[in-house]
Amino acid sequence: MVALHDTHTLARRIELGGAAAAIGYLAFSPSGTRVYGVAGDTILAWDPRATAPLARFHGNAFALSPDGARVLAWDEDGIGRIYDAATGALLAALMGHERGGLSSLDWSQDGTLIATSGPDGSFRTWDAATGEPRTVMETANGGGRATNAPPGALTARFAPDGARLLTVAGTGMSIWRVERGALLESIATGGVLWSAAWSPDERRVAFGGDNRGGIVGNDRSSITIPVAGGSWIFDVNWSPDGGRLVIGSRGGIVRIVNGDGVLVDSLVGHTASVYRVSFSPDGRWLATASGDHTARIWDAATGQVRRVLPHRGAVMAAAWSRDGTRLATADGDSHLLVWDVTTGTPAIDLYGEGVQYLDVTISPDGRSLVATGHGGEVEVWDLTRRRRRMVLVGHASMVTNAVWSPDGALIATASSDHSARIWDPVTGAELARFHHPSDVMSLQWSHDGARILAGCNDGVARVWDVHRAGGTPAEIGAFATAHLGPGSGP
Fold it and tell me: Cα 261 to chain center, whole Å?
């Protein structure tokens, strides 16, 4: 059963029937006059004002053309079929991928080309009018064929001009020239990615993961940042002026590097892994959260410890208020604390019984707090009344990160259920959902609130356009570290 709700009142408007199996994916047509869904091996189309489906197409995955006039359907037989959305007539068939479901389907913006990636390890483009193959970009394990694509093809997305194709695989990101199928560029982090952070000017991305860290620029330059032998980088964050980067890792030592990746200081004091690191808004102080049951506040200029904040369990997160006078922390013993930075005493102690907290963040106005948990919890707390105001329901497994939009109007969450989501903190409604091929470990908003940077444990950082979902839960095209900020990207 599919239910349509009013996005303002959340009241149920109509139920759409006719599905013989559970609905696995839903999407509105570009005009909003049709709703499409996958039920088993059938794609159904509904008029959102009626309950019975208007049409049925064979397939278990689909993508609509930009004008909504055609439906590209795919099935386990490895054949893509293009249907007329109005009549249901079969227009063309795409044959070339081996049997098995596809990893991704995408139309070029002008509707003339289709891009696909499949279990045979290849990326392909097709003529959308005739179904004829145009280019094939294959992986090294493609059965003796060309070896100019990264292994493990996952996602293919056209650039807006349709001349280039951005592909994301388990080892990173590649850019191809569509006309010749030539590889233009490949960027890979090489392993699990735990954290990614934009520089303040949004022209560089720092990342950290298993035994590696680096800085990638929008000019495709890359710098390696120091990692102690055998250590994981759990968190990276820039200073407000973009001149320094702070790194938290498994060994307990907090490292600070300059914009060129050169080590300038090491802060010693923690005796266990450091999970979160962040500069205060004015750049004078550093906050760190550690598995040694403490959070610490450091003088960013001298590297001296100013405050040691004791907890009952491992401290998984620490986040500054916008004015820098308070620090919120979350521990593994179900406690959320808000500290007075000047005195080093907890001003607020909140208890979420049974919740193993992983992250915490204070709203820009300082009145609310969002905390996430190991069991998929996303809780909104009222700091004035010191009570839990709302629980955001939807994630299927642990929620690793939560961030407020710069204006405080939205909340974004990252989860190991392979999704990032955007929520209305007033109503609790889920407004958008961004699907990923792996666990999402960290999120960061751009300064204008229009984009989100997501760090994933497949080793890829992706940039999402927040507003292209149109206010409804929908998948938005994935980008990678080469699409960083203003004036950059494919």
Answer: 25
On whether the CB atoms of residues 439 and 194 are closer than 8 A, the answer is no
| Residue 223 burial class via C-beta count within 10 angstroms: exposed 0-12, middle 13-18, buried 19 and up | middle
Q: How far is Cα 472 from Cα 450, in angstroms, rounded to an integer?
A: 16
Phi, then psi, of 469 in degrees rounded to 5: -80, -10
Tokens at 404, concatenated: 């407020």
Highest mean pLDDT, choosing among 53-57, 150-154, 309-313: 309-313
The answer to whether residue 313 scores a pLDDT higher than 80 is yes
Taking the C-alpha atoms of residue 190 and residue 187, their distance in angstroms, rounded to an integer, is 9
Residue 294 token pair: 């403490």
The DSSP-derived string for 320-356 is E-TTSSEEEEEETTSEEEEEETTTTEEEEEEE-TT--
Cβ neighbours of 91 (radius 10 Å)? 17
Pairing of strands 133-138, 193-198: unpaired
* Non-local CB neighbours of 221 within 8 Å, separated by 6+ positions: none
By CB atoms closer than 10 A (0-12, 13-18, 19+), residue 41 is middle
Nearest to 325 by CA among 307, 312, 311, 352: 307
Burial class (CB in 10 A: 0-12, 13-18, 19+), 228: middle
Enumerate domains of the chain plus CATH numbers: 2-152 (2.130.10.10), 193-469 (2.130.10.10)
- Residue 136 is predicted with a pLDDT of 78
Sign of CA dihedral 183, 469, 112, 100: positive
Mean of pLDDT values over 120-138: 80
Residue 354 has pLDDT above 80, yes or no: yes
* CA trace torsion 446, 473, 207, 296 (10° rounding): 80
Tokens linked to 101: 């479901």
Least confident of 42-56, 185-199, 352-366, 379-393: 185-199
Amino acid at 232: W
Q: What pLDDT band is residue 321 in, cutting at 50, 70 and 90?
A: very high
Task: Give the residue ranges of DSSP H helices in 361-435.
Answer: none
Q: In the block, which residue shows the tokens 């208020």?
A: 321
Q: Does the global pTM surpass 0.90?
A: no
Beta partners for 126?
A: 114, 133
Phi-psi group of 430: left, alpha or beta (phi > 0 → left; psi -120 to 50 → alpha; rest → beta): beta
Q: CB neighbours (10 Å) of residue 391?
A: 11
Place of tokens 């590889």: 183
